[in-house]
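Working notes for the structural subgroup meeting. M.R. asked for a predicted model of this chain before we commit to crystallization trials. I am recording the input and output together here so anyone reviewing the notebook later can reproduce the run.

Input as submitted:
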Amino acid sequence: MVILKEVKTKKDLKAFVKFPFKLYKDSKYWVPPIISQEIKTFNKKENPVFNDAEAKLFLAYKNNEIVGRIAAIINWLEVKSQDQKKMRFGWFDFVDDLDVSQTLLDQVEKIGKTHSLNYTEGPVGFSNLDKVGVMTEGFESIAPMITWYNHPYYVKHYEAAGYKVEKSYSESTFPFKNVKPEFFKKAQELIKRRYQLKALKLTKTAEVMPYADKMFDLFNESYASLSSFVAINDIQKEYFKKKFISFVNPEYIKFVVDKDDKMVGFAIVMPAFAKALQKTKGKLFPFGFRHILHAKKHSKDVIFYLIGIHPDYQNKGVHAVIFNEYYETFKEKGIETCFRTPELEDNIAIHQIWKHFDPVVYKRRKTFRKDVA
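Returned structure, recorded in token form:
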């Protein structure tokens, strides 16, 4: 018999966060989160997303052992402003037992019905900057720090519970040697002259910060047309600046501005922290920081985290300016392999800008949906 328990105490929350450490203890490919940061994600005083969202966390027990977990999430901005009557769920992990997964999903569906929502979708986080999707391909490659890893049996549990595919994502990689500057070198010079643009040279985090709000505003504008996009508000901007910017090498953040210093394009690349995070075992102290800092300085692999172009400048080649900046930076640092985060498979525009690099899809993932109204 499966017993469900809502997370109410600090002890419960720590057990919720640490359950995957047991579930994936024998996996070479799972990447642990930093436990303290994961706990803060669900702290209503720490994470401003709770100003516009709510979450209930649940643990599933069998024979007094934790055998599953799930976060039931409602983003009220999405529900009220976009009229998306969606019940989100994420942080969904479980042993290979259909009773366990079904019990957890039943609880999410029950909450959705209580709030008169029409359907559930997951796995997703609170917003578009959170992790997304259950892996369906690529189980034998290490997971980036910004995605979830899962066992291959997960998909059959969604299907058994009556869930259907809602969105499909792919993750691609290409060796840096595939990058041929002739595809963008001359073009970016022409584009900068034609539209009076310039790329900013950033070498210190302090130089990034004055532009960070503009970057998030541009993120909101450039991604607004994507399905289920929820804009980042001013309070969340401050939170994400503290959470992410310090982790990113300033030279890996690229801004393109016009003659009036208005931002028209940006990109964020992160060093590949996955192997370093495996060494930390979820803890920054006493030695975890050392592994993170070493990866930040010396990793030869990078992950393209975000790229955004102002709608007025899309299809005008601004990405060529950004690629040229990264080419020079990566060449200097001896970067060997580039990875891309999950991208919607129907986002043709984003796939087109990478075509000259001959990327190879190495992972696929999906979100699943079920009507509950």
